[in-house]
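Page 42, continued from yesterday. The earlier attempt failed because a stray header line got pasted into the input along with the sequence. Redoing it now with the clean sequence only.
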Amino acid sequence: MIMATIDQFWKFLKTVRKKSFTELILCLFLLVLIPAYYFVDVFHILPCMYRLPSGSIWYLIHVLPLTFMVFNLLTNFVAVMYADSSVIGRLLTVSEYTSKDSIYCTICQCNVPLRCWHCDICNVCILTRDHHCTFSTTCVGHYNRRYFLWFLLYLSAASFYEIILIGYYTYCKVTIKFSDFMVLVPFQSIITGFHLTVGQIFVVLLTLNLIAVTMSSLLLIYYLDKVRKGLVCHEKQESSYDFGLMRNLETVFGEKWYITWISPFIKSKLPYNGIDWQSHVDQYKTK
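This time it went through. Structure tokens are written below.
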């Protein structure tokens, strides 16, 4: 068990080293920004809004759900990178279905199962490949799609919460001038010089959250609609893999799909292996 985990960790490190500089910067940006927001909330904004110890109850009312969201945000994000959906090290079983419908990948040197596509960025075939996520530096596929969707959900929720919290704190405690909005124009800031004020800092914090909540919410709606229809991004209106709403949820989130939102550490076995899809389709249709 421990050796398998170590092997997975080294495989993860090897894949990270192959990523582009831009992807790594964006990934580190998220990994630094999320805890930074949390520490600003917990150690500055909330103590200022609710004087301790008299305001301890209200402080905890905010801190506990905030901690839960940040925990799931970070752990699901890391799980997206760590859970490998590639064909590397997997026994691609050959059946009457896979041998008939699969194609050969000259790069990976293997027969590619249904719903498996080669990623030019990761340079490997991904089982049930949905898309390549730039921020996580990896492809979202059969074994990490669950974590990606929960990451988007918690990013939407946390960003919305931050907009309300920081917005209210800014309204009560911070004076923002019109000139503070010039910080959003990098070219102008370079000309006039960087003289960050408190107002400019909170303008940036609010702007980043507005961008995050907009992008994550739209992406979440889009990808959940795909899940509902039993599709991945490469598939348009294919109905062969639509097993009904409940079964489609199990296909992505596993048998315990209804509690996987609590933590990525909850084990939820997937009903399919991501390789022999056609036999699963036939098995479903005969029920």
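Notes: The two ends are 36 Å apart (CA to CA).
Reminder to self: strip header lines before submitting.
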